[in-house]
Design brief:
This protein is an alpha+beta fold. It has two domains: 85 residues, Gcn5-related N-acetyltransferase (GNAT) (Aminopeptidase), CATH 3.40.630; 133 residues, Aminopeptidase (3-Layer(aba) Sandwich), CATH 3.40.630.30. The protein contains five helices and eleven strands. An eight-stranded mixed beta sheet has the order 4-11-5-10-9-8-7-6. It is globular, with a radius of gyration of 18 Å.
């Protein structure tokens, strides 16, 4: 039985539509560090695990995201291990609601503001090129970027909603809902099914995603490692 691409999301990402962002070989790959910290081994065999460990930049971490808990590669040390809830959108995306704020496209000119917002809200790993994954959108008020959302991993016929972030003093206004709905509609218009990941203990976020039409597909696991 063929595994679903989302069972090994980083492997599917870096051997498929986003292979141009990968470095390494058939044993192990890692994402261009400008885009993020993800890495993946072909399997749990000794050769692949050693190749993955060799891709870790000195003094930096590397994140492994797998459907099953991943063993610690030899010569590495665990710095974080957590469960993620993987969700896939079912049915049509939500329609815009009356009174929603205007949504603007974000790009290179907004990169510094996006990085500052990501550092504040911690939506997940963020690098100097993360905003280049694909379309990102935001809400501005009097020139200030209040919230943003965009995409990250791409699979065959699927795209990941990611980078959802709102300044703390702007929460409670439905900005994340507005932006996620917009990103979903853009993906569906391109013929892609939206999916996303949330920390499994973030009940508030998971409830929001369910209200937007996402359903839990499975639990996946993240392991962050450094060289020992």
């Amino acid at each position: 039985m063929t595994a679903h691409p989302l069972d090994r999301p980083v492997w599917s990402m870096l051997t498929g539509r986003q292979a141009h962002l990968a470095t390494g070989d058939a044993r192990a790959l890692c994402l261009d560090r400008g885009y993020g910290v993800f890495g993946v081994a072909a399997d749990t065999g000794a050769a692949a695990q050693a190749a993955l460990a060799a891709l870790i930049p000195p003094g930096e971490d590397l994140w492994i995201v797998e459907g099953d808990p991943w063993p610690l590669p030899p010569g590495t040390r665990e710095v974080k291990r957590a469960a993620l809830t993987q969700m896939v959108a079912e049915g049509p995306p939500p329609e815009p609601r009356p009174g929603e704020p205007a949504i603007v496209a974000l790009g290179n000119a907004d990169a510094a503001e996006m990085a500052a917002l990501a550092a504040h809200a911690q939506p997940g790993p963020w690098g100097p090129k993360t905003h280049l994954y694909g379309p990102f959108y935001g809400v501005r008020e009097q020139g200030r970027l209040l919230a943003m959302a965009g995409q990250r991993m791409l699979m065959p016929g699927m795209a990941e909603v990611s980078g959802v972030a709102t300044w703390a003093d702007c929460r409670g206004r439905g900005l994340a809902r507005t932006l996620i709905g917009h990103v979903m509609r853009q993906m569906v218009a391109r013929g892609e099914q939206p999916f996303l990941h949330s920390y499994a203990d973030n009940a508030g976020a998971i409830g929001l995603y369910e209200s937007l039409g996402f359903r839990i597909r499975r639990e996946v696991h993240v392991l962050a490692i450094v060289r020992a």
